[in-house]
Structures
1.
Amino acid sequence: MLLNINPLLTGELLKRLDEMGHSDYVLIADANFPAHRLDPRAVEYPGTTVPQVVAAICEVLPLDDALAPALMDSGQTPAPAVQAEILAAAGHPAPPRMVDRWAYYDLAAGASVVVSTGELRLWANIILYKGLVTR
């Protein structure tokens, strides 16, 4: 057991986040997202929500200032409330980049790490870009 590590962060996920380089990205997906089709090694987090996992990851992963998080565009006005929760958990200062559903699947296919949660709310997916560790 480690001190000061969110208990949601498993050794497998921490290792994979650590192996990411600057501007590599992680996809945190809801339960409906085809995570294992995109990445057979997708890390499973059943029983969790996307905001919970995003908050835990952002405790250890510096976010890229130049690349805003990417959300799947639902086309709904207003946007689904879960997306505001996810962005609050990420704490990135820039507004998110909204990506068309089909283009989002293409973008997600390049993720270094895919995390599949038990989130049942729709449109609850986010891509976070790794920034620089400067301390």
Note: The mean pLDDT is 96.
2.
Amino acid sequence: MKKKPTRMQQPEIDRRTFLSTLGWLGVGLSGAVGVLGNLMYLKPAVDYGPPTRIRVGRPDEYTVGIKETRENERVVVVREKEGFAAISVTCTHLGCTVRATEGGFECPCHGSQFDNDGFVTGGPAPSPLAWYQVSIAPNGELEVDKNVKIPAGTYLRV
């Protein structure tokens, strides 16, 4: 006689146990989300941005009449007979980076033009380029502070 293969029966979960387990999983998941949220709160989500004080080299590295563009800092360091100056290369129209030319500055985006002192000579720019304070750091290097705007034509005499 052949035996019929017997099926193993899995225990059935009643409705009450299933719903209770599902409820406890929800409580555990919400508790885990709460703990994770509190841990993330401890670390501030602050972007301090780039530094506003930048070192641009020693004064003796610059020759008179030079305009050195610092692309990453978006500033031009100018050395004239009068001294040193730092002029922003951010166009006052829409924030494009202007190029230094022999006659001043020009914006490649919308055609704004500025003279050597950053004053608008043409185009849609509403105001002149900003001048930043230049000082000598304790180690003897030139330091540009982009938080301090100064009047155009103000040079650091060295």
Note: Helices lie at 15-42.
3.
Amino acid sequence: MEFSPHNNIVKLCIQGMISQDTGKPEDASRIFLQAWNEAINDFEKFLAAYFVARNQENASDKLKWFETALEFALKVNDDATKSALPTLYSNIAKCFEELNDSENAKKNYELAASFKDKISDKGPFYHGTKADLPIGEFLTAGFNSNYQSELVMNHIYFTALVNGAGLAASLAKGDGVERVYIVEPTGVFENDPNVTDKKFPGNLTRSYRTDAPLKIVGEITDWIKQTPENLKEWKEKLAKNEGKIIN
């Protein structure tokens, strides 16, 4: 299942996180449990259980919910959810540590390490921009960030979600037509550290970066376009964002 900010369970999890951040843990707990009760597939159950787990006060309850999240994540078994396995195993290990079960803590830390930095995603991959470029052209790092204009980027970013690339195109600087190109990495790439294990576990948006060029091999013209209202909301969020870009 593709991660989407419009998914009802994702929206509930975001709402719960806002309650946490504003010092309302009881509201957060209620919202996360609502997400769990309304989840209808393995991906949604994995996500809801993860946030319910984070909001528990004792190690036993945390462990129960993190193991539930892991159970459903393993059932999903797609590239996005696999990226959350190191986080899930690490959290389970920490619970065992709190419960003075060193053997199971060690076992789960080892499992976390075995999945860390292993990217199984084979694409296809996309890059959103307002630049008009020919097929066969190479996209390279070294340009100013769309989100912090004074910052020169050391990496070029791309995603396996076409709608994510479409959003990037709509937020890109310039007056050109929004374009989503199909790209192929020419070198090694890594999970985008600006989104991986931030608000959500792992790299659910399948966002990556590389310091090697991306080759344009095609163009996509069909993706979910942002409404003027949604685009205005995204721009307002970016304007309020005071976090530093990991470059």
Note: The chain has a mean pLDDT of 90.
